[in-house]
Amino acid sequence: MPRKGFVLNGDGVVCLDLDHCVRPGGTLTPAAATLLRRCPPTYVEVSLSGDGVHIWGRGHLPHGRRLTVEGGSVEMYGTGRYIAVTGRRYGCCPSTLADLSEVLASLSS
What we know:
Strand content: 35-45%
Order of helices and strands: EEHEEEEEEH
Helix content: 10-25%
Radius of gyration: 13 Å
Number of domains: 1
Number of strands: 8
Distance between the termini: 41 Å
Number of helices: 2
């Protein structure tokens, strides 16, 4: 089966990629749960591996970054990146993209 994905090209769609943060049973690690609470309601999906999540939204992110936030790893992308998408929503998240500008700014500072 062909994989589906999305190419981030700097048009204002961003993705926060959190690996190894979904525990057995579907709960998030404390670091991932804290980051998700900081985001406005936006589309979140379980990653292809099944143990990570992608937080999708809108914002400006000219360069990708990898950060350690509260003990967890976060990769932030807005351009020059292909992200495999699964369509497997995490929890009861909306199907729309929220403005993540404030979260991106706080993570980048």
